[in-house]
Each structure stands twice: as structure tokens, then as C-alpha cells.
């Protein structure tokens, strides 16, 4: 199957010049499907964790956003139990000017800055709002349990 030049270029750059703490490797049998690994950012409850994600570029890419999902369990107000991510650029704020790299950097930034006011996991968001210290502690425990 032939890939658009843009996807080939982006993939080459991801491999040649990876963003710090992020790796994305395309599947040999489907170059639109990437295995992604994001290291938990320093000074976040996810520090020291290694999170596996999947990223898929739909046919319409770059006119529509990539599909990104956490495969590693994570306790985060903007990521639900199925690993779906609540992030504006993956939905209505997507622009063809953005790239796979931008998306992965944004997901990494979301780990540093959970936003309980725009939740996907309501129970986790409630916990973050009512008892941030306690919620951060649970995020740390889950990171130790599932992402090490």
C-alpha cells in the first residue's frame, strides 16, 4: 500500500529525531499504525513510568486527527478506562498543520497538567478536585503498578 509523502516524511523525522521521552515506531505490516512509548514527565505523578500507546492515522489524515489511545492503565482525569484521551487537538481543535510529533508532545504535556475541569474519567476528576493530594498519590501508585 502506498503512503502519502507527508506520512513518510513525518515517520522518518520521528525515527531520526525523536522528541525527548517519546518513541513512535510504525508497524511493518501497517505503516499507519504506530507503537508509541511515552515516559512519564519529571515532576508529575507519572514520573518514572513508561506508558504504551497506540496511534493510528486514518485514511483522511492529515485532514482528520490521528486516533491515539493509552494501552497502559493510567489514573488521570482526561484519560478514561479504555485509554481514550480528552485533548482538544484530537477533536475540534485539530488542524492539518499539526503533526504526529505535535500530538504526542501534547499527550505528554497532558500528563504534566491534568485538567479535571474537562474530564473524560469523571470519578478521577472528582477525586482530583476534592482531594488533589490523594488523587496524585493514586496516580503515583498506578504508575508504579502498571507503568514500570
TrEMBL record:
CDD domains, per database record: UBCc_UBE2N
Q: EC number(s) for this protein? A: 2.3.2.23
Q: Mind telling me what this protein is named?
A: E2 ubiquitin-conjugating enzyme
Does the keyword S-adenosyl-L-methionine feature in the UniProt annotation?
no
Which UniProt keywords are given for this protein, alphabetically ordered?
Answer: ATP-binding, Nucleotide-binding, Transferase, Ubl conjugation pathway
Q: Which residues form the signal peptide?
A: none
* Record has ATP-binding as a keyword: yes
Q: Name one GO molecular function term.
A: ATP binding
What family is reported? Belongs to the ubiquitin-conjugating enzyme family.
**What lineage does the source organism belong to?**
Eukaryota, Fungi, Dikarya, Basidiomycota, Ustilaginomycotina
Q: Which domain of life is it from?
A: Eukaryota
Record-linked Pfam families? UQ_con
**InterPro entries in alphabetical order:** UBC (IPR000608), UBQ-conjugating_AS (IPR023313), UBQ-conjugating_enzyme/RWD (IPR016135)
Q: Identify the residues that the record assigns to the UBC core domain, covering every copy.
A: 2-148
Catalytic positions are 86 (glycyl thioester intermediate)
Amino acid at each position: 500500500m502506498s503512503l502519502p509523502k507527508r506520512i513518510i516524511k513525518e515517520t522518518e523525522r520521528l525515527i531520526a529525531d525523536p522528541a525527548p521521552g517519546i518513541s513512535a515506531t510504525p508497524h511493518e505490516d501497517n505503516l499507519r499504525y504506530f507503537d508509541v512509548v511515552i515516559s512519564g514527565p519529571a515532576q508529575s505523578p507519572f514520573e518514572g513510568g513508561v506508558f504504551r500507546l497506540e496511534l493510528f492515522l486514518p485514511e483522511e489524515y492529515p485532514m482528520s486527527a490521528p486516533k491515539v489511545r493509552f494501552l497502559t492503565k493510567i489514573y488521570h482525569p482526561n484519560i478514561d478506562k479504555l485509554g481514550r484521551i480528552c485533548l482538544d487537538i484530537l477533536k475540534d481543535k485539530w488542524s492539518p498543520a499539526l503533526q504526529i510529533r505535535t500530538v504526542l508532545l501534547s499527550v505528554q504535556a497532558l500528563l504534566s497538567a491534568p485538567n479535571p475541569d474537562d474530564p473524560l474519567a469523571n470519578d478521577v476528576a472528582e477525586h482530583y478536585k476534592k482531594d488533589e493530594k490523594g488523587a496524585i498519590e493514586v496516580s503515583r501508585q498506578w504508575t508504579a503498578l502498571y507503568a514500570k
